[in-house]
Write a structure and sequence with these properties.
This protein has about 575 residues and is an alpha/beta fold. The protein has three domains: about 5-175, Thiamin diphosphate (ThDP)-binding fold, Pyr/PP domains (Rossmann fold, 3-Layer(aba) Sandwich); about 195-355, Rossmann fold, CATH 3.40.50; about 370-540, Thiamin diphosphate (ThDP)-binding fold, Pyr/PP domains (Rossmann fold), CATH 3.40.50.970. Helix content is about 35%, strand content about 15%. A six-stranded parallel sheet has the order 2-1-3-4-6-5, with helices on both faces. It has a six-stranded parallel sheet with strand order 9-8-7-10-11-12, with helices on both faces. The radius of gyration is 25 Å and the shape is globular. The chain starts with a helix and ends in a 12-residue tail after the last helix.
């Protein structure tokens, strides 16, 4: 059989139903092998960046490997943003690039290029993949493909790139005689009995414990185990941005998102805790602030991560545990451990007082739409099992601070790469992965324009994607930064920036569109938006002056966000001493 047919057969055997691509000459045989197949479908996107992110969305929504294909040269390099996102956010994807014939490839010859569009994509992407290789021998395709799939899924998941030259794609092979993969898995250590006993004792003796749940909970499919452990132990839960949908927000134990733009009540919870169970999180500076020595300074920290390189990398843990977080939670579940009941009750009352004092939204005093309030209203209209794909920028933080995500819903967004324009192609991938679900895109005007061409993909397939477009007529996050640190010199965020009429744009793609700008229009607009399963766009006009608050400034501990509380008020919220701002030399 032809090698390109074999590649697709293996993908089908992995349960992969769709691949995302933009055509090109160096993909010719792989594309031809897709023709007429009923067991796997090619989704033709309109930019390779969008194809790579659609594969990411497919993987996040399905739990399977996402696959994107691109031609050599610019096709391959255009996929780098999606590849990087999968690497930083631990998403299992396989990126297959076409390459010039091996007899046109320069290999180690000291010339820049021989074949047309020849580009050594393997060397380019090695720093942002788990593995990347050129298939120069057709007899090794089984070895390479099995290795790619195994590597993408095992341990801490991530992307693999496989570069297949044209003459290799068309080779005739016998699958029964192909060289098998002999790679051995390297598993994370399990938690040993002595460490487990010490952690259990810490939990029993703690007065103010908190679980910090990261993206690793979803990646390891451990959300049910987390829910069971939290409800058994009665320990409150905060999340990172990437862990936002791993715990139902309606549960009384949920205490918000922490970090630079985290809920003030969540940051106060972590700041005052005496035990932090950090599960499947990198503990990066977006969570801890830029003074890591102040994070959890009154707490014992138990840090569980499948990647040993993340342990003690940013925050020194008292108990760094290299383990799959699901395995760790399963071991904890063997014991019905719970902190002191009366102390825990007092701790929960304190956290509830934080939530009461510092809610994530307030009812606006005017007719203008405040973004956090809008997100609150949007929550009540979302379908019970919706998949929400959120773009990057201010809208990401407004949504993360205020949306109420239930046990059935998903909140998909990029964390490490954080590329503007990612929400729409991610939604397309998620829609093909879960055709039974309504997909909701939340984007800003700036990010939306970066992959606006994918409205044609939505239109072409009549995908059930609802787009909520928050329009403040600028690059709001950077504008807010310029206001804080650059005396409101709005170069390139306002000066030089402009928008099209998004209503006209949507209609050009045959997608119904509506626009609102007042609070009293919200309910009717959302009812109409979610009244059917057809694609639609709702544009929300807000003021350019809308900011993301609270916000943590550089050199401040996470409990001390802007707008700053009066010092007496902050002291009243703190069990630990209030820290002063460090002197800057």
């Amino acid at each position: 059989m032809k090698l390109s047919n074999y590649v697709l057969d293996v993908l089908v055997s992995e349960g992969i139903t769709h691949v995302f691509e933009v055509c090109g000459g160096a993909l010719a045989h792989l594309l031809d092998s897709l023709y007429g197949r009923k067991d796997i479908t090619a989704v033709s996107m309109h930019h390779e960046m969008a194809a790579s992110i659609a594969a990411e969305g497919y993987a996040r929504a399905s739990g399977k490997i996402g696959v994107a294909l691109a031609t050599s040269g610019p096709g391959a390099t255009n996929m780098i943003t999606g590849i990087g996102s999968c690497f930083f956010d631990s998403v299992p994807c396989l990126f297959i690039t076409g390459q010039v014939n091996t007899y046109e490839f320069k290999f180690d010859r000291p010339v820049r290029q021989i074949g047309f569009q020849e580009t050594d994509i393997v060397r380019i992407v090695r720093p942002i993949t788990k593995d990347a290789f050129l298939v120069a021998d057709a007899s090794k395709i089984k070895n390479f493909l099995d290795r790619a799939i195994h590597t993408a899924k095992r341990g801490r998941p991530g992307p693999v790139l496989m570069d297949i030259p044209l003459n290799i794609q068309r080779e005739d092979i016998n699958p029964d005689t192909l060289e098998p993969c002999t790679q051995v898995s390297i598993e994370a250590d399990s938690v040993d009995d002595i460490t487990l006993k010490e952690v259990l004792e810490l939990i029993k003796c703690s007065y103010r414990p908190v679980i910090l749940a990261g993206g690793g909970i979803r990646i390891s499919n451990s959300q049910d185990a987390l829910l069971k452990f939290a409800r058994t132990s009665r320990i409150p839960v905060v999340t990172s941005l990437m862990g936002l949908d791993c715990f139902p927000h309606e549960d009384p134990l949920f205490m918000g998102m922490i970090g630079t733009y985290g809920n003030r009540y969540a940051n106060l919870t972590v700041a005052n805790s005496d035990l932090i169970l950090a599960l499947g999180t990198r503990l990066d500076t977006r969570q801890t602030g830029t003074r890591p020595e102040t994070f959890g300074r009154g707490a014992k920290i138990v840090h569980v991560d499948i990647d040993p390189n993340e342990l003690n990398a940013k925050i020194k843990a008292d108990y760094p545990i290299n383990s799959d977080v699901g395995t760790f939670l399963a071991r904890l579940a063997e014991f019905r451990v719970r902190p002191n009941e009366s102390k825990l009750r007092a701790w929960m009352e304190r956290i509830k007082s934080y939530k009461f004092r510092y809610p994530s939204f307030r009812v606006p005093a005017s007719d203008s739409i405040e973004p956090n309030y809008f997100m609150h209203r949007l929550s009540s209209h979302l379908p019970r099992d919706a998949i929400v794909c959120v773009d990057v920028g201010q809208i990401q933080m407004w949504a993360a601070q205020t949306l109420d995500i239930n046990e059935e819903q998903r909140f998909l967004t990029q964390g490490g790469m954080a590329s503007m324009g990612s929400a729409l192609p991610m939604a397309i991938g998620a829609s093909f992965a879960r055709p039974d679900k309504l997909i909701v895109v939340i984007s800003g005007d700036g990010g939306f324009q970066l992959n606006i061409q994918e409205l044609q993909t939505v239109c072409h397939h009549n995908l059930p994607i609802k787009i909520v477009l928050i329009n403040n007529k600028c690059y709001g996050m950077v504008r807010q930064f310029q206001e804080q640190y650059f005396e409101s010199r709005y170069q390139s965020t306002v000066i030089g920036y402009s928008n099209p009429d998004f209503q006209d744009v949507a209609l050009a793609y045959k997608i119904p569109a509506a626009r609102i700008s007042r609070v009293d229009e919200i309910s009717d607009a959302l009812i109409r938006l979610f009244g059917d399963r057809n694609p639609a766009l709702l544009e929300i006009n807000i003021s350019m002056d809308c900011k993301v608050t609270p916000k943590l400034s550089v050199n401040m501990p996470i409990e001390d966000q802007e707008p700053f509380l009066e010092r007496d008020e902050l002291k009243s919220n703190m069990i630990l001493d209030v820290l002063s701002e460090p002197e800057v030399s």
